[in-house]
Amino acid sequence: MAQTTSATQEFVPIKEVRDGIVILKDGGMRSILLCSSLNFSLKSEDERSAILLQFQDFLNSLDFSIEIVVQSRKLDIRPYIALLEEQEKAQTNNLMKIQVREYIEFIKNFTENTNIMTKNFFIVIPYSPATLSSNQTTRNIGARFGIGKKKDAATTSESSFDENRSQLEERLSVVEQGLVRSGIRVAHLGTEEVIELFYKAFNPGETEKPIKVK
Hints:
alpha+beta
C-alpha cells in the first residue's frame, strides 16, 4: 500500500515573511520585537519600584494582547575557542603559548561542567483582520510565538496587506514606547532576522548563533 508523505511546510503555520511581518496561513499578522533585559540587582529600591510601576502602567494601557517569549539556548563556545587557538598559533613567545593553551583548556573544562545559557527576550504583537474568528489554536513551536492554524485559511491581498500592516504598526509603536519608558531597549526584527529566528526554532540542532539586528 502506497504511503503519502506531506511536506514539512504544510505543518508550519507561516505563509510568508514580508517586510519583517509574519503572515500566517489564516491571514493573521505578527511583528516581533527583540528586547533587552534589566538587572534589578544593580538598581536601587526606588528605581525598582519606578520600573515596576511603569511596566504595570504599560500593560494596563494595552487594549490588545501581546506575548512575551523567553528563549533559552545553551551557549556555543566553539567560535571563541577557535579564536583563541588562532591567537595561540600567532604567539612567538613560548610562555605566552603555554598560557593561552592553559586558558583554552580551562574554558573547555569550565563550559563542559557548567550549563551556560544565553537568553533572548521577545515581544510578539499580533493583528488579525476583523473578518477572522478570534478563537485560535496554537501548538508546538508556533504556540511560543503566538501563531497557530485555523481550519478556514484566509488570503491577504496586496491592498489589505498595506491596510493591516498600518494597524499592526500602530500597535507596534504603542508597545515600543511603553517598553522604552520602562527602560527596556527594543529592536524590531526585519525579514532576515525573523526567518533566522524561526529557522533556529524549528531546527534546534543547528549551531547556535545570536540573532543580529541590522
